[in-house]
Amino acid sequence: MANHTQSTKSISLDQYGIKNAKVNYQLSSDELHAETVSKGQGVESSSGALAVNTGEFTGRSPMDRFIVKDNITEDKVWWGNINIPFESDKFQELYDKVVDYLSNKELYVRDSYACADENYKLNIRVINEYPWSNMFAYNMFLRPTEDELKDFSPEWTVVNAPGFMANPEVDGTRQHNFAILDFTRKIALIGGTGYTGEIKKGIFSALNFILPVFKDTLPMHCSANVGEDGDTAIFFGLSGTGKTTLSTDANRSLIGDDEHGWTKENTVFNFEGGCYAKVINLSQEQEPEIFAAIKKGAILENVIMDDSGNIDFADTSITQNTRVSYPIYHIDNIRKPSTGKDPKNIFFLTADAFGVLPPISKLTPSQAAYHFISGYTAKVAGTEAGVVEPVPSFSACFGAPFMPLHPTEYADMLSKKMLEAGVNVWLVNTGWTGGPYGIGTRMKLKYTRAMINAALNGDLKDYTYEDYHIHSVFGVAQPRTCPGVPTEVLSPRTTWNNDEAYYKMAFKLSNAFRNNFKQFESYASEEVRRGGPQRYAF
Description:
Radius of gyration: 23 Å
Structural class: alpha/beta
Shape: globular
Distance between the termini: 61 Å
Number of helices: 14
Helix content: 25-40%
């Protein structure tokens, strides 16, 4: 693979207030890999991938994510626990401290961009304290050509200082780590955490504001791929629901695995230039494409290795959120450029640990808007003895932590686009069947793939009474048959073989939906409200 970003250009960071820094500009992936190893900040695994430990934080810290409240944001952002306001003066003071901390250090700077569609491109400069964080930026953002670098002018800047610790009492943060967006200064400021996901999520949160407010484009926390006939499929889903796995399909070209925009021209584009996948229990058999992508150029985070550099993907002793970052070209079957048009199918993926949702069901437009706003999946309570109770987890628009506007604004945009484009929307349960977590079993991946293929191929047809059954609690249409899937698997009630226990659990979940939706009721239309569960008790 050609090295996209070899550059002889050098730059000064004085304009950012960073003085006397030794600047490593636009280093290649191989150079950053070597720097990381030589500084003792990472080791090479047996596959050639770089393995690093992100330190204290192995995941995002949602309560430490802030947005500066200013003229641009004050009337538009949905302020609250997800979008926590930060004072502009406090931001400036903290920024000054961070750039002072970075002065006189060896730093790594990368020019890159987000949004694969030329009309929506956002130029970004990333300033990193650590080489592996810069390598992450190389992987995850889009890589400019030599020609594009000559006159490169960054619109946004990411300043990333994992070693800088804030003083909450003075700096206005909650604790020593922080990730703050400033839309006036166009800066994402990150400190006190080595978790690389904050770098990409900072920019993508900014785009989740910029695109709908200024560009009439729906931002989506989703993956997307394209079939041989040019039809685009979109996959929404929270962590652990199979979004990356199911969109990485040998028979379809991958557009991207995490963040996309859906334009007014009815096209879809990838925000990023790479993939950031969970690797817990990763196997070559189940996920061959992702497994093969873990080679030189990839970064493994918080995994356990033996003395020979072999990874134990089942070992979660550091964190369950073990990850790999790799440039998208590590996947063989990718769309170039990372754009698509004419979305035909949308899949909402949920890992239902209650085991009551059908493995696939077709949604009406009002149900689609309701489930989009709800953004349901479930967490298993834990693996210790006796704890088998699943916990419902709702994240509005399947990406609440990254959505600065009110969820209904994104849902309204989605509904409008769905109706205009005439897409089919499917709810897919990749979670449990035959009982809840602790009793039932996880849905077989081969069955989920068969159901998705059937939806994509048109084998599941339009709704008719002969072909579909309306679920008595959730009101969704579940197909009666599906190629490659045993008929009994399609009915969750049948797989339980205990109607009383099934309905008891189904009502438990439908009530959780209802309680969660109360926060949106005053904003949602009557049509959207009708898209929820039909029953809450016998």
